[in-house]
Write a structure and sequence with these properties.
This is PCI domain-containing protein. InterPro entries: Csn12-like, PCI_dom, WH-like_DNA-bd_sf. It holds the Pfam family PCI. One of its GO terms (molecular function) is RNA binding. This protein is mainly α. Among the domains are: 204 residues, no CATH class; 73 residues, Winged helix-like DNA-binding domain superfamily/Winged helix DNA-binding domain (Arc Repressor Mutant, subunit A), CATH 1.10.10. Helices cover 65% and strands 3% of the residues. Helix 3 packs across helix 4, helix 7 runs antiparallel to helix 8 and helix 10 packs antiparallel against helix 11.
């Protein structure tokens, strides 16, 4: 009992000292409930709480503003250690609300680091609570509640003064919640606030937060098929990402590669191998060879992965570029045989090429494909319907995308 009393008492003392002396770096780790299963100190505190049932009386030595924060925080630590994640989330949310109430009263930004920890913890605890609720057959709703709390935090930061630099960090935590819940449309209002509000200067924000922000907004542009904007944002994230964080670079490239492919820019084999992005190997090979069968096979093989990351439809639309490459190969072969007639490609030749690739198509389908290639400016020429021939331009019959989207 004495040892348990001492452990809990030490935590209360350390928390109080850091709180009243406004030492954010000392306070922050004490709020990290989810690390109580790995942090030796928090682990000993959690065990002390389990053994010392009357720990609440230790809080009588602190005043009201701190007692509310500490009492709920300690319950969260105790519940998390016991594997009761829903109880841990509920208690932590109460502690977080009490902390936010105090945070609003401070003019300086000393508590930003502890607030970052709270923003992270409430998201992680909400995810675990929702898992527990789901396993019990109940409606998982805590992550949505965490998003509502973080919007209140954002509101507290969206004002003139030194605390505003924390707004982007909280925004990134909100992005993670919205992407997890599949409610990415909720990102729009907060993006509008960050990018149009006069109180914010993007260059003022910490680089780490800017990289994360550009990664998520880049992903949003991918979903909206705004490939030029997506490329700009994801390239910013990639170029400013810590090169030692290979996992983060890989996450960025998972979206940047499909964007680049859509703009006609192929990654190197070295890049794909270095960051273990093998799901794109056959996609790139298909684009190089003009092999529609290979592209469809790659999409089928990695369908779940591409669907989960939200890039399947982007990759599926690469078929037009593959058809362009196939037509270019046919054109080049004809030019070797008879340069004077190289620009006249019979539809039956294209049908034979596709059937050789085991693609079951008829001449009418091929006509449609040719018409789309011409319309999208992937092929210059016209279609002679009666003779079933595509007459290609003698000058630059297959325009390069040069970093522009198809049809732009």
């Amino acid at each position: 009992m004495g040892d348990a009393h001492r452990r809990v008492g030490d935590f209360v003392r350390l928390f109080s000292d850091a709180f009243y002396s406004q030492e954010g770096s000392s306070l922050s780790p004490l709020l990290s409930v989810s690390s109580s299963s790995t942090s030796p100190f928090l682990l000993s505190v959690a065990d002390g709480l389990a053994a010392f049932q009357d720990w609440g009386r230790l809080l009588k030595q602190v005043d009201g503003q701190l007692e509310d924060i500490l009492s709920h925080l300690l319950r969260a630590v105790q519940s998390f250690r016991a594997g009761r994640f829903m109880d841990a989330y509920i208690a932590f949310e109460k502690s977080a609300n009490a902390f936010l109430q105090e945070f609003r009263n401070w003019e300086s930004a000393w508590a930003l680091q502890p607030l970052y920890t709270i923003a992270y913890e409430i998201r992680v605890l909400a995810e675990k609570a929702d898992w527990e609720l789901g396993s019990l057959g109940k409606n998982p709703e805590k992550l949505k509640g965490a998003g509502s709390y973080l919007m209140k935090v954002f509101g507290a930061l969206a004002s003139k003064g030194p605390k505003r630099v924390g707004a982007l960090h909280v925004t990134c935590q909100l992005f993670k919640i919205y992407f997890k819940l599949g409610t990415v449309h909720l990102c729009r209002s907060i993006i509008r606030s960050i990018e149009t509000a006069r109180i914010f200067d993007f260059e003022e924000f910490p680089l780490r937060d800017k990289v994360t922000y550009m990664y998520y907004t880049g992903r949003l542009e991918v979903y909206n098929e705004n490939f030029l904007a997506a490329e700009q944002k994801l390239m910013y994230a990639l170029s400013h990402c810590n090169f030692r964080r290979e996992a983060n670079i890989r996450m960025i490239l998972k979206y940047l590669i499909p964007v680049k492919l859509s703009l006609g820019i192929l990654p190197t084999e070295f890049l794909i191998e270095k960051y273990n992005l093998v799901e794109y190997t056959r996609v790139v090979q298909a684009l190089k060879r003009g092999d529609i069968r290979l592209l469809r096979g790659a999409l089928l093989e990695h369908e779940n992965r591409f669907l989960k990351s939200g890039v399947y439809l982007v990759l599926e639309k690469l078929e037009l570029q593959v058809y362009q490459r196939l037509m270019k190969k046919i054109y080049m072969l004809q030019r070797l045989k008879d340069p004077s007639k190289a620009h006249q490609v019979k539809m039956e030749v294209v049908v034979k090429a596709l059937k050789w690739l085991e693609m079951d198509v008829d001449i009418d389908e091929v006509e449609c494909i040719m018409a789309i290639l011409i319309y999208k400016n992937l092929m210059k020429g016209y279609f002679a319907h009666k003779s079933k021939v595509v007459v290609l331009s003698k000058q630059d019959p297959f325009p390069k995308l040069n970093g522009k989207p198809v049809g732009a």
